[in-house]
Design goal:
13 strands, six-stranded parallel β-sheet, 17% strand, Rossmann fold, alpha/beta, 18 helices
Length: 389
């Protein structure tokens, strides 16, 4: 512990696998700028791999809906108790929050109520979509916000929050020439016997699989009736049991049309001419690959009407929000029917060049790369500002 006293201490807090991934990249970039920093925090395998001294592993923290949060309350409470204990025994010089707003905003409040520690928020809550009151919590408890969407900057600065658009971390995953090198010429024209591969991405949560998988499979069968050369690959997330997908495919009566692909969703993108996906970050990834995509989502009627009341955005898809245009067709709730999905898919197959061209706007709007690197610069600045290093 004597060695730790001589090092600056940065605490990183995140609560989901995606946050763990981006937090890991950020820690890596900070270490490049200053190797004499001790990192502690709440995270998962990526942060652990980066040498972060984990207070609590996030495996049990990934809660989504109201029911899940209630069931996992004891894990969240345990994590928070260990966080407070760590503060008492080894106060950090800087705390970095990464996504996971419910837990992290509560942590920020606790820190500012009891200590004088700088707080940096990377991948801030989606206040532009819902829970706009969180903006005022961020203003009160966070010293600097590193934003990952360009349209967030105006809103944060208007509220008086010290902030900057640092770039979107997904840009660092996909080189600018990737779509061209993968697909060759942007001019696409299908001959009668050319294979067409459509990727099906039903999501990573059991509720999404329950609500969307059968709809996607029924849609696929209808598409195949009209385009015989079409085949389908189904993405299986690590959190999804393979048997769920296998049972859905078996019920279709045409199992030969489908192939299950496990692992990173990039494997689906590499093989697909088109995507049908559950709403989420994955649709933004598809846009960066320039793959024409249909965005679908369906939930319980009660959840849908609650969402209608709470969510205040024009589009559900991140790509559409970024360019302020429906470049990815959105079929939500009652519109997410096999017949409507089939009709839209056939239209997009016949107009693929148009959709690929429109998707190029997303990368242009997102602009600069290096989100983790730029955020690391902010972190180092805050450390120097508060405790010269």
């Amino acid at each position: 512990m004597n060695t730790l006293v001589t090092l600056k201490h940065v605490m990183v807090l995140t609560g989901e696998p995606s946050g763990d991934f981006h937090a890991g990249r950020l820690v890596e970039e900070i270490r490049k700028k200053n190797g004499r920093i001790y990192f502690s925090g709440i995270g998962g395998p990526i942060l652990k791999q980066q040498g972060v001294d984990l207070i609590y592993d996030i495996e049990k923290l990934s809660a989504m809906g109201i029911t899940e949060v209630f069931l996992q309350f004891r894990y969240i409470k345990k994590a928070f108790d260990l966080f407070r204990e760590k503060l008492r025994h080894h106060l950090p010089d800087l705390i970095i929050l990464v996504d996971y707003p419910g837990f992290n905003l509560r942590a920020a409040k606790y820190v500012k109520d009891h200590y004088n520690i700088k707080i940096l928020y990377y991948i801030t809550p989606k206040v532009w979509a819902w829970k706009k009151n969180r903006l005022f919590k961020i203003k009160k408890y966070v010293d600097y916000a590193a934003l990952i969407f360009p349209f967030e900057e105006k809103l944060f600065k208007k509220t008086g929050i010290s902030s900057n658009y640092v770039g979107n971390p997904l840009l660092d995953e996909y080189p600018e020439n990737f779509p061209k090198s993968l697909f060759g010429s942007k001019t696409v024209s299908y001959k009668a016997n050319d294979p067409i591969i459509i990727g099906l991405l039903p999501g990573s949560r059991s509720a999404e699989i329950k609500n969307l998988l059968n709809i996607m499979i029924q849609s696929a069968c209808l598409i195949h009736q009209r385009q015989k050369q079409v085949r389908f690959i189904v993405s299986k997330a690590s959190s999804v049991r393979r048997v769920w997908i296998e049972e859905g495919i078996k019920k279709s009566g045409n199992p030969q049309l489908f192939e299950i692909v496990e692992g990173h969703v990039g494997e689906i993108f590499k093989q697909s001419n088109m995507i049908i996906a559950a709403s989420g970050t994955v649709t933004l990834e598809a846009a960066l690959y320039h793959i024409p995509t249909i965005l679908i989502y369906k939930m319980s009627i009660a959840s849908f009407w609650v969402a209608k009341l709470l969510v205040k955005v024009k589009y559900a898809g991140l790509a559409n929000l970024i360019v302020n245009e429906e470049i990815m067709p959105e079929l939500l709730q009652y519109k997410a029917s096999p017949d409507k999905i089939c009709k839209k898919a056939i239209y997009m197959i016949n107009h693929q060049n148009y959709y690929q061209t429109r998707l190029e706007l997303v990368r242009k709007k997102l602009g600069k790369k290096g989100a983790a690197k730029n955020t690391a610069c902010i972190a180092i600045h805050l450390l120097r500002e508060f405790h010269p290093i």
